[in-house]
Design a protein that fits this description.
The chain has 437 residues and is mainly alpha-helical. The protein is built from 18 helices and 3 strands. The chain is 66% helix and 5% strand.
Length: 437
């Protein structure tokens, strides 16, 4: 009987093998198509991201440079310090704009009409007078002398020098007329036009004039706001994760807390802005547009992310670590803080940095608490009016001047650099401290 059983089972087994063998080419073909589609999807995503980055860089790299015009400036004592006392208050209140106008008229003496003079004075930025004021304040001995000074050009002249305004289009279709182009060419032939690194872009606050606007105030506001967010969110998030994962009893209350934490991680960010407006500003009377309020709102927003990442890091620690510590007589507290928490800290740090990067890129909650205000001065504390880099980008993107287009793209490049650096730091910290079992 045992001899006949294999004989009776062989034909079905052979048919099964034949059917499987016949279907293998189709299965392999489907698998190859699936892999190909996956690779195409990844490639397509990389292409779109690359095009986005190239577009931002192409529009924004010129924002890191600024055009200057060299003019001989006579620091007339009758205009700056008639009494000759060199009083700082008198020097600060002097008419430096008149010095700039006289320099332009001396460079182009043939210009006489009122409208032509207005166009001529438009070659130089309104911030040029502050350049001269700073020079005299730093060195009063300049008064009574004539110096060649590189003055900052206006935004339209800057756009022409960088090639963003097409000279070949009709005069009525561009912001700079032929007379202004002729004056610029005359200065260029003398070597009096130069484009150099725009240091003011990183040190100045916001301005109505594109050539004077910078991200210094926004960067300082972002620093103070993220510092408040970090000091609040990280300790509270780590403490909450440790308690919920290691000490909290498993009952309906802790289940309810866990569900709410997971739900808060998915709440739209503008809801946290409404919460900050209603509670922090309207109820507690905290100042609007201040980093302290922005930091509190962003801390509430990233807290669920840090708690979830912290609990995941604690769960990744092998139970044998806890059992070994308890086996040699360590208490529950000693086990958690001396053994489990140090091993889970890399994952917690990764969650913290990702949460901070998320907070750095947020705009909606900050709009609700007034951090969309036009702030010229660079903040020097947690209670000074300020704005953040994403909000600054939002404001510039809504400006009609062509020069603000490159400012917007340049600020986006800086923001992306910060975000990439923070994410890279998270990866490096995880690789450096991570232990594998």
């Amino acid at each position: 009987m045992s001899d006949r059983t294999p004989a009776t089972n062989e034909p079905p087994r052979r048919r099964t093998l034949e059917a499987v063998s016949a279907s293998l080419p189709k299965r392999y073909a489907r698998e190859r198509r699936f892999r190909l589609l996956g690779r195409l999807a990844v490639l397509l995503g990389l292409v779109f991201v690359g095009l986005l980055f190239l577009s931002i860089i192409a529009n924004g790299y010129t924002g890191f440079r600024q055009t200057y015009l060299r003019l001989p400036v006579t620091f007339d004592q009758d205009l700056l310090d008639p009494e000759g006392k060199r009083d700082p208050a008198t020097l600060r209140g002097a008419d430096y704009a008149a010095l700039v106008k006289k320099s332009l008229q001396a460079a182009f003496p043939e210009v006489s009409g009122r409208s032509e003079l207005r166009e001529l004075f438009g070659l130089v930025s309104s911030g040029a007078e502050y350049q001269l004021m700073d020079m005299v304040a730093a060195d009063p001995s300049l008064i009574g002398t004539t110096q060649d000074v590189w003055l900052i050009a206006s935004d339209d002249i800057d756009m022409v020098a960088k090639g963003h305004i097409d000279r070949d289009v009709a005069e009525g279709e561009r912001r700079v007329n032929d007379r202004a182009l002729g004056w610029l060419d005359a200065l260029d032939q003398k070597g009096a036009v130069k484009t150099r690194f725009n240091k003011a872009f990183f040190t100045n606050g916001d301005s109505r004039e594109p050539e004077l606007a910078g991200i210094g105030g926004a960067v300082a506001g972002s620093f103070y706001t993220l510092l408040v967010c970090l000091l609040l969110a990280f300790p509270i998030g780590v403490a909450a994760a440790v308690y919920l994962e290691e000490f909290a009893p498993k009952n309906r209350w802790t289940d309810l807390i866990e569900v709410n934490i997971n739900n808060l991680a998915a709440v739209p960010s503008i809801v946290f802005g409404l919460l900050g407006l209603a509670v922090l500003i309207n109820f507690f009377g905290m100042p609007r547009s201040a980093p302290i309020v922005g930091g509190l709102v962003l801390a509430l927003m990233v807290l669920p992310t840090i708690i979830i990442a912290g609990r995941a890091a604690l769960k990744s620690v092998p139970p044998s670590i806890r059992e070994a510590a308890l086996g040699v007589g360590a208490s529950k507290m000693q086990t958690v803080f001396h053994h489990v928490l140090p091993l889970a800290m890399p994952g917690m740090l990764t969650g913290m940095i990702i949460g901070m990067a998320h907070a750095l890129g947020e705009t909606a909650p900050l709009l609700m608490i007034g951090m969309v205000a036009f702030v010229v001065d660079v903040p020097h504390g947690f209670f000074d009016p300020s704005t953040l880099l994403p909000v600054q980008i939002f404001l510039w993107a809504d400006s009609p001047e062509r020069a603000f287009v490159e400012k917007t793209a340049a600020a986006i490049i800086v923001l992306l650099a910060f975000l990439i650096a923070m994410n890279a730091l998270a990866v490096l910290l995880r690789r450096h401290f991570e232990r594998r079992w």
